[in-house]
């Protein structure tokens, strides 16, 4: 499936919740070091698709390959085992809209939880890694603080460090700045921008169009459970082909 | 005016002390057993398939919706007939009190576990943690924090409820009180002392509960 050397290949992903068909055969192939942004109206299936990429949602049909991890979904293939899911997720970092930090652990412990508990890394090594990553997201001085003491922007940066601590091949971001006060959006975007510059492979869902145009190698427009258009930011954002995408983007200019 | 004669109880202090120890013993052992039952049942209720969780629900409702006194007496008189083994009063009391506490603790555990945001599970899964580990390291510690006030309240109730064992002649504080009354003819003094002793043990516990509650409130 990844004969073309792609890091992530999702092929013909279908997902329904009960009768509600949310993904109607979505495919996406992401090369190493690419940053792919997904845009689209509310309910178009962006989050669901993203969550299918680390199998927080289990597709009902289709295939997924990330690095050496391959899955096929449907009536024929067996459902992946817990252990296989865990192994995939070690390699795919995810950042949530609402941070989901562990409130009973210090910032440093949040970041080292994965390396220590999943990879069995020794404490000193994990702490050093954690402090490095916190420095990288500009929070070296918050290592011993608890999440409740942080601003939203700081929380999200800790969440990014927590995901990076697993040294994932791919990072997924689901509207990482949507829950933030406007003045805190910039600090999170700049961390993501730095990751892009370092060559981290990323798929992100965002409503920050300027940022998307700026940082992405490709932008995909999801509409009604399909990938309606995908291309360079220039193509998708500046020269939209479909009326739907034009309408979506124009609504955007009005409201933002 | 009634003239109090606490001095008349002097010969009985030993018995009263014994009774208090029995009360504390029943409280501690049945709280521990109840917590174990509650933890297991509470977890199974949130995660197990229906054929497990429905019978557990039945157990919980039976013990929550019948008076403890009835349960005690039933365990002592009826259960031995049904299963054909003799049960000492002490054993019957231990079983009834533990199952009763377990049914309440189970609901507290279940509520606490379900109160933890599903985002916490997802965050754990997203870094490759397995279910059991997420439960132990992420969910349970947070659930426990939420549950502490209810736990303390339930434990206070449990200590008071142990007084019911006197009905089947287990020598707890209240039972000794009635024994002493029968020989000393000083019910007012005896039962006042008994009440004061319960209070002296329990009041500090409620203070601790209050303190924990405010401290947790400040943490949010
Ligand atoms: N667990 C679920 N159970 C039932 N329906 C769901 C579930 N998750 C998502 N859906 C439905 O699937 C549809 C797509 O949801 P999704 O969250 O993927 O959209 P989205 O494009 O991310 O939208 P938004 O911009 O609002 O985040 C919605 O109609 C939503 O109600
Ligand atoms: Mg979404």
Please tell me about this protein's structure.
The complex is a heterodimer of chains A (256) and B (220). Chain A is an alpha/beta fold. Helix content of chain A is 38%, strand content 26%. Chain A contains 9 helices and 10 strands. In chain A, helix 3 crosses helix 4, helix 4 (123-136) packs across helix 5 (152-164) and helix 5 (152-164) packs parallel to helix 6. Chain A is globular, with a radius of gyration of 18 Å. Chain B has helices at 13-47, 50-64, 68-77, 79-83, 89-115, 118-126, 131-161, 173-184, 187-219. The longest helix of chain B has 35 residues, at 13-47. The model of chain B has no long low-confidence stretch (mean pLDDT 91). The interface between A and B is medium-sized, with 28 and 20 residues. Bound molecules: adenosine-5'-triphosphate and magnesium ion.
Quick structural overview:
Chain A has nine helices and ten strands. Chain A is α/β, with parallel strands linked by helices and 256 residues long.
Radius of gyration from the alpha-carbon trace of chain B, in angstroms: 21 Å
- Corresponding CATH superfamily of chain B: MetI-like
Distance from first to last alpha carbon of chain B: 54 Å
Give start-end ranges of low-pLDDT stretches of chain B. none
The tally of structural domains of chain B comes to 1
The major sheet of chain A is characterized as: 6 strands, mixed
Query: Helix coverage percent of residues of chain B?
Result: over 70%
- Order of SSEs of chain A: EEEHEEHEHHHEHEHEEHH
